[in-house]
Amino acid sequence: MTSTIRRPAILRTRHGRRWLAGGLILLGLAVAFAYQARPTATAPDDRWLHVQPQTLENHLGLVGRIEAATQTTLAAPFEGLVQDMAVTEGQRVERGQHLLTLDTTQLDIQLREALAAQLKAQRTVQDMQNWPQGEEVARARRAMTNAQLGLTDTQGKLADTRRLFERGIVARMEVDALEQQARTQQLDLAASQAELHAALDKGKGENRQIADMELANAQARYQALQTLHAQRELHAPFAGIVLRPRKQEGSGSVPMLQPGMRATQGTPLFELTSLERIKAVSRVEEADLHQLSEGMPVQITGDGFDGTALQGRIEAIGVQGTPSEMYGGGTTYEVTVAIDPLLPAQLQRIRLGMSARLAIVTYRAENGLALPAEALHQSGEGSTFVIHRKTMHEASRQVAVTPGRAVPQGIEVFGMEPGYVQLPASGP
User: Where's it mainly located (predicted)?
Assistant: First the structure.
């Protein structure tokens, strides 16, 4: 009885085990089939690089120094003594601040002389404008009138004397004397007429032009002296630092300006260095010159203002090279970078003459694609291609690309979409 009841249970257990073993075999076959059906891109020997658009930049590094963008020498506008000084060497000044005052004693004398010359020239021009009614012409007219009246009177006497001579009343000698007097007076009349014409000519033509030009010269000289007189007080044309004038080549040291010193016209008084705008000056080798052009963005850093990055652009590139003692005696060219206006906090840290490092952006591409060199392949026809797929779930394919510039991220390529690029298998 007992054996009859247990036998079916044993049979059911063995049957379940066979089903379980069969299921495990089928599951193993499915896993093996799925593994063999996977894309070859995920093979253990392959590597895939995710490529996304990014900003690509090339930089050229130079070393230079910080200088003032504006630097001017203030010279004495006229000769005179330094009356008073309102600043000292090394002092910071604001735009329009009073610097010094020059004595104008000598200039005042020149002004009065110029004014006198101008008044004389004005009188001469006025006389020219009313020349026909002037004194010289009137005098010439009176002389001609007197000569005409004298000749007329003599001619009347001569006519009367001839009639008396014909009657035998007077001698021949009186007739001859009057004839001689008449001839002399005719000559005097002709001369006085010539003098009148000459006097009238003085008021026109070249003489009039000479008078006008002399007046213009006198007015210009007087106005120029007035302009100089207005510059007796020197003011700062911009905010900056007052420095001693630089020594001229071949001359001794420039003495510090003091009240009472005589300054001749054109003598340098101050050197004013601007603080409103600064620039960076460097030199570039001839081999790198082709990479630069005006307007390129530049980032300026330095040990003296560590932690502060200044921005600017190339303002000028020198056209005249200078032989360099470094780098095998090659030629270098000056590069000037205009720095953007500084913030008040930056002004407190930046000093003129500081060394600076210039990172010039020679190439920039927004949303560019760059690949390692080993990701590029060459076809038999000489074209360049990559193994590409948009996502890791798609099949890979060859995509023809055009290599561009070498950038820090690799080589820039064109003609490819973002996605995944196959790299050569890594070594063991």
Answer: other
Residue 15 lies in a domain: no
For residue 62, give the nearest of 227, 288, 311 by alpha carbon.
Answer: 288
Q: Measured between alpha carbons, how far is 183 from 189 in angstroms, rounded to an integer? A: 10
Is residue 326 situated within a structural domain? no
Q: Which amino acid is at 191?
A: A
Confidence at 343, pLDDT banded by 50, 70, 90:
confident
CA-CA distance, 399 to 342, in Å (whole number)?
49
- Enter the pTM of the model: 0.54
Contact 349, 275 (CB under 8 A): no
Average pLDDT, stretch 31-44?
42
- Regarding whether 204 and 175 lie in a shared domain, the answer is yes
Question: Cα–Cα distance between 366 and 58 in angstroms, integer?
Answer: 12
Residue 207 and residue 151 share a domain: yes
3-state class (DSSP) for residue 65:
strand
Sign of CA dihedral 86, 92, 93, 99: positive
Amino acid at 3: S
The total domain count for the chain is 3
* Rounded Cα gap, residues 286 and 363, in angstroms: 18
Domain range for residue 261?
Answer: 70-103+232-246+256-274
